[in-house]
């Protein structure tokens, strides 16, 4: 049976791979991934690269991880083709080449930068930091920098600041922290896509502004944050930046909606039982002059929605020499994914319904010549209507971070959640900034 007749979602067809991840059996997950033919199909190749990059990172194979993340980068930057769009129109979006969600692009930068740091290639990590600016600029242009849209990624900007600061580029670190903070401050509640402005970000912005001698910026942001900056002594052993990647990102399922075509003085519209009205998008190739409402029946539209997975304890703490620090949320992929999809749903509905209308018109043309053939085409079109349920599902549901002061020399950092020890990190305080990410499925 052709792939586009299958009722299974992408998540269901790659389930055994994700089962291996949840069991922390990364070697087995990698073997399953390599054997899975669906994810290696050309249209799913980006997902294959992203997942291979992810599992290699979990296996501490950082060179291999970046090999696949670089392939993913190149794939996402390559232009789409008219033929690929046509395939989606004729069949369904699941048959088009997967190009990635916007937030997935930022997560590639995060993992690539960490890989470079772990490979002792700080110069390459800084190149990745600069690329974060390019991706954010492209995102701003895409949505005209609207505060109501996912027009930038605050998490990546904070990561960028940390990368610059780790290489003692305080000026660029300040700019990154300021850009991130401004995203939060543009929102009435100072939260950005499910994340309240981290206190650590506020302090880092004020500290780097003070280090650069930008007293006007210190004064301005003290007022914005409603706090007074108090300088702290330099840390002899440096710092450890810990990222706790919690849970698994949501996956997509298929929802079905039913619409009919209507016409009024304003033109042709699709409508449902809730009186939602969406205009026909004639750009897909529909001829309005020969369009008649009476020739068109009921539409079944398949659209994706996200399923949020249950999360365990989301409180994280570290202790060093008896000093306890609480983790602060820095990214909420659950929230970002659901809201970004919701923001574009109406536009996608209109385009998808127009695509279905094009199929309905083709059915009518065939039926006018051969009723049996038209009926067969109608059945085929019904069976091929399928939502695009693909996404990078091994990402964490959310990410917390801690900035831990170190003494000089060997020491242990204990990471706990709800009072339970998760892991112990052995680290040597060397006066610089070090990075560590921990994955909790």
Describe the SSE topology.
Elements: H1 10-13, H2 15-22, H3 26-35, H4 37-40, H5 45-58, H6 62-77, H7 82-90, H8 102-118, H9 122-142, H10 154-166, H11 170-185, E1 191-192, E2 195-196, H12 199-211, H13 215-225, E3 239-246, E4 251-264, E5 267-271, E6 277-279, E7 299-307, E8 317-320, E9 323-326, E10 328-332, H14 333-369, H15 371-384, E11 398-405, E12 409-417, E13 420-429, E14 433-440
Parallel strand pairs: 3-14
Antiparallel strand pairs: 1-2, 3-11, 4-5, 4-7, 5-6, 8-9, 8-12, 10-11, 12-13
Mean pLDDT: 90
Q: Spans with pLDDT under 50 lasting ≥5 residues?
A: 1-6
Helical content stands at 40-55%
Distance between the termini: 35 Å
Strand percentage lies at 15-25%
CATH class of the domain at 121-232, please?
Answer: Mainly Alpha
Radius of gyration: 25 Å
Lateral arrangement of strands in the main beta sheet: 10-11-3-14
Give the SSE order as H and E letters: HHHHHHHHHHHEEHHEEEEEEEEHHEEEE
CATH topological fold name of the domain at 121-232: Serine Threonine Protein Phosphatase 5, Tetratricopeptide repeat
The best one-word shape is elongated
């Amino acid at each position: 049976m052709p792939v586009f007749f299958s009722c299974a979602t992408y998540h269901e067809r790659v389930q055994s791979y994700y089962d291996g991840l949840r069991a922390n059996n990364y070697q087995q997950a990698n073997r399953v991934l390599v054997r899975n033919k669906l994810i290696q199909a050309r249209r799913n190749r980006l997902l294959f690269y992203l997942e291979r990059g992810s599992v290699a990172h979990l296996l501490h194979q950082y060179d291999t991880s970046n090999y696949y993340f670089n392939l993913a980068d190149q794939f996402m930057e390559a232009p789409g083709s008219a033929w690929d769009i046509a395939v989606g129109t004729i069949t369904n979006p699941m048959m088009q080449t997967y190009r990635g969600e916007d937030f997935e692009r930022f997560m590639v930068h995060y993992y690539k930068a960490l890989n470079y740091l772990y490979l002792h290639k700080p110069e390459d990590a800084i190149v990745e930091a600069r690329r974060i600016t390019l991706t954010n600029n492209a995102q701003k242009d895409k949505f005209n920098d609207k505060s109501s849209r996912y027009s930038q990624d605050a998490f990546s900007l904070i990561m960028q600041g940390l990368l610059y600061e780790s290489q003692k580029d305080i000026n660029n670190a300040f700019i990154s922290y300021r850009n991130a903070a401004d995203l939060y401050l543009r929102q009435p509640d100072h939260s950005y896509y499910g994340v309240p402005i981290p206190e650590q970000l506020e302090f880092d912005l004020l500290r780097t502004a003070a280090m650069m001698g930008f007293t006007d910026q210190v004064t301005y942001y003290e007022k914005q944050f409603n706090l007074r900056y108090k300088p702290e002594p330099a840390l002899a052993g440096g710092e450890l930046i810990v990222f706790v990647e919690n849970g698994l990102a949501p996956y997509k399922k298929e929802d079905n909606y039913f619409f009919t075509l209507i016409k009024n003085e304003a033109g042709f519209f699709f409508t449902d039982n809730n009186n939602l009205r969406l205009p026909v998008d004639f750009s897909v190739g529909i001829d309005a002059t020969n369009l008649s409402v009476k020739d068109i029946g009921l539409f079944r539209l398949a659209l994706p929605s996200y399923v949020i997975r249950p999360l365990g304890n989301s409180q994280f703490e570290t202790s060093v020499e008896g000093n306890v620090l609480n983790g602060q949320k820095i990214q909420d992929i659950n929230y970002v994914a659901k809201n970004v999809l919701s923001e574009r749903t109406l536009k996608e509905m209109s385009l998808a319904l127009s695509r279905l209308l094009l199929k309905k018109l083709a059915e009518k043309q065939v039926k006018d010549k051969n009723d049996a053939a038209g009926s067969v085409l109608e059945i085929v079109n019904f069976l091929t209507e399928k939502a695009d349920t693909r996404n990078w599902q091994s990402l964490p549901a959310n990410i917390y971070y801690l900035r831990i002061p170190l003494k000089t020399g060997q020491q242990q950092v204990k990471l706990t959640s709800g009072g339970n020890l998760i892991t112990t990190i052995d680290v040597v305080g060397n006066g610089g900034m070090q990075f560590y990410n921990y994955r909790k499925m």
